[in-house]
């Protein structure tokens, strides 16, 4: 198993108050890592640090060769300028833009690939619509499409199913599961249930990070991270998933 | 009608008006979509400091304005980079200090005080041939840069965070865009003056946004709207001797008002009026 991202003793915070302390984690090829934790625990911040949107105060992040430029990111959908006048197709195409090609025009192959990927997400008919005409769920799909278009080696998702209906939830889950054959998945989620069958590891983040392999979880341990009682719903799936924090 | 075109001041005014409209149409959509209207206001008012110092030194005020606005743009770029929530405070301070410096230096200039009104509200009819050349150079710089860096600027306007994920030079692009706005502001000051600059950067875009929602088409429509507004305003000011800057802006404002009213009316006719009903 090749490590693609290695985080060592990373510390980061806002306005001189640390949010994440001494975090160490290795992300391997074909990883399927769920990140859970209470609000304000630093989950999104953690993703942003891996994506080099922000720089850590201390510690280091190592990327395997060619990984740093090939990370896909699906933000929570409120993060971009929704009033920007751009079509769905145009927005997906922006997923191609990087530091090497931003001076050049899109080529034909890129446009075809964008149309193909929109087709996969049932957005082909909407390709010439303005992005502010899309519903929340459609925007979520559009953001996933944008992240996938440049063939990432790892896909980092922030609450990808928070604003979609059950059918789309299942579609997105199955889709992510399929993607996992070709790339590592790192996903922040409040809702473990849809991913209970497919995940490989779970990281609990609340200032510090505890990582658990696929195994046992009980309510006690989740309670420690969240700082309050946690309900786990089981629908014929294992409802205990994590081991003790060491 | 045609003999007014034989005056050199009229030719200068028309040339400047057209070039400035194109500049506005190119840079305006970025300012509006990236919500940088307040920043543009800050930049244009800080120009007054440069104008004042240049007058005091006895050089062309446009050069003074250029130096001042460009430095302000770079300072703003770095302040924005630090992501502090106090960004608008910084803009406000820049705005006021720029004006204060300008007033002090104009006050210190010996002899008669140059006409403040010309700086504040502009007068396209006093543009000299030399100013036309300066405007042309500014026009070239702005339009060529936007063409080259178009995708980069769209990326940071649409989703700056994702641009960082893709390792685009976000800081450089931000500062670059601010500097282009600064240069546009300098070109605009001659036409509509410091106070009305924001209007010419936003009104054509607002009119264009009523007709389409594609970024590139918005640019094109803004350019033509801008040219129309400038020439119409210029004609009005020539014949009924209104101040040119204000005539240009008011023409734009009236057109925008008519379009808005027309669209609202059409919607009313199609969907009926909303009414609350109580028992």
In brief, what are we looking at here?
The complex is a heterodimer of chains A (246) and B (279). Chain A is an alpha/beta fold.
Structure description:
- The complex is a heterodimer of chains A (246) and B (279).
- With 246 residues, chain A is of the alpha/beta class.
- Chain A contains 6 helices and 9 strands.
- Chain A has a 6-stranded mixed sheet, sandwiched between helices. A 3-stranded antiparallel sheet of chain A has the order 2-1-4, covered by helices on one side.
- Chain B has a domain at 2-196: ABC transporter involved in vitamin B12 uptake, BtuC, CATH 1.10.3470.10.
- In chain B, 82% of the residues lie in helices and 0% in strands.
What CATH calls the topology of the largest domain in chain A is: Rossmann fold
Mean model confidence by pLDDT of chain B: 88
CATH topology of the domain at 2-196 in chain B: ABC transporter involved in vitamin B12 uptake, BtuC
Give the largest interface pair and sizes.
Answer: A-B, 30 and 27 residues
Considering the protein shown, what is the CATH homologous superfamily of the largest domain in chain A? P-loop containing nucleotide triphosphate hydrolases
By secondary-structure content and strand pairing, the structural class of chain A works out as: alpha/beta
Count of structural domains of chain A = 2
Counted by DSSP, the helix tally of chain B is 10
């Amino acid at each position: 198993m090749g490590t693609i991202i290695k985080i060592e003793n990373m510390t980061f915070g806002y306005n001189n108050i640390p949010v994440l302390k001494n975090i160490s984690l290795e992300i391997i090829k074909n990883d399927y890592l769920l990140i859970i934790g209470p609000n304000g625990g630093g989950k999104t911040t953690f993703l942003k640090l891996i994506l080099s949107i922000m720089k850590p105060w201390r510690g280091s992040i190592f990327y395997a060769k060619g990984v740093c430029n090939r990370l896909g990111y699906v933000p929570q959908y409120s993060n971009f300028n929704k009033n920007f006048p751009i079509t769905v197709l145009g927005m997906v195409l922006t997923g191609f833009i990087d530091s090497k090609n931003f001076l050049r025009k899109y080529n034909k192959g890129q446009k075809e690939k964008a149309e193909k990927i929109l087709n996969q997400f049932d957005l082909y008919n909407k390709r010439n619509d303005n992005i502010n005409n899309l519903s929340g769920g459609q925007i979520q799909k559009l953001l996933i499409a944008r992240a996938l278009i440049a063939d990432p080696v790892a896909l980092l998702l922030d609450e990808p199913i928070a604003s979609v209906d059950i059918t789309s939830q299942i579609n997105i889950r199955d889709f992510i599961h399929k993607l996992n054959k070709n790339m590592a998945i790192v996903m922040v989620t409040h809702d473990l249930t849809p991913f209970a069958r497919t995940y490989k590891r779970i990281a609990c983040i609340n200032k510090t990070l505890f990582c658990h392999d696929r195994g046992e979880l009980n309510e006690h341990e989740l309670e420690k991270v969240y700082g309050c009682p946690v309900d786990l719903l089981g629908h014929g799936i294992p409802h205990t998933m994590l081991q003790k924090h060491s | 009608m045609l003999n007014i075109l034989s005056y050199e001041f009229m030719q200068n005014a028309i040339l400047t008006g057209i070039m400035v409209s194109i500049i506005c149409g190119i840079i305006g959509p970025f300012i509006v979509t990236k919500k940088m209207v307040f920043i543009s206001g800050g930049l244009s008012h800080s120009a007054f400091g440069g104008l004042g110092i240049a007058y005091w030194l006895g050089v062309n005020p446009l050069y003074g304005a250029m130096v001042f606005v460009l430095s302000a743009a770079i300072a703003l770029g770095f302040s924005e980079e630090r992501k502090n929530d106090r960004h608008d405070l910084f803009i406000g301070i820049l705005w006021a200090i720029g004006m204060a410096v300008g007033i002090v230096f104009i006050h210190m200039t010996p002899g008669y005080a140059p006409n403040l009104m010309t700086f504040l509200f502009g007068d396209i009819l006093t543009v000299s041939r030399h100013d036309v050349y300066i405007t042309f150079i500014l026009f070239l710089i702005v339009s060529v840069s936007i063409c080259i860096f178009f995708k980069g600027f769209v990326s940071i306007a649409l989703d700056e965070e994702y641009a960082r994920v893709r390792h685009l030079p976000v800081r450089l692009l931000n500062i670059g865009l601010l500097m282009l706005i600064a240069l546009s502001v300098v070109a605009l000051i001659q036409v509509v003056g410091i106070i009305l600059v924001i209007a010419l950067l936003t009104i054509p875009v607002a009119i264009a946004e009523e007709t389409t929602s594609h970024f590139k088409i918005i640019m094109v429509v803004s350019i033509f709207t801008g040219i129309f507004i400038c020439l119409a305003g210029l004609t009005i000011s020539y014949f009924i001797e209104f101040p040119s800057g204000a005539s240009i802006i008011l023409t734009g404002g009236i057109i925008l008002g008519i379009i808005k009213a027309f669209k609202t009316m059409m919607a009313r006719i199609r969907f009926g009026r909303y009414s609350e009903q109580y028992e």
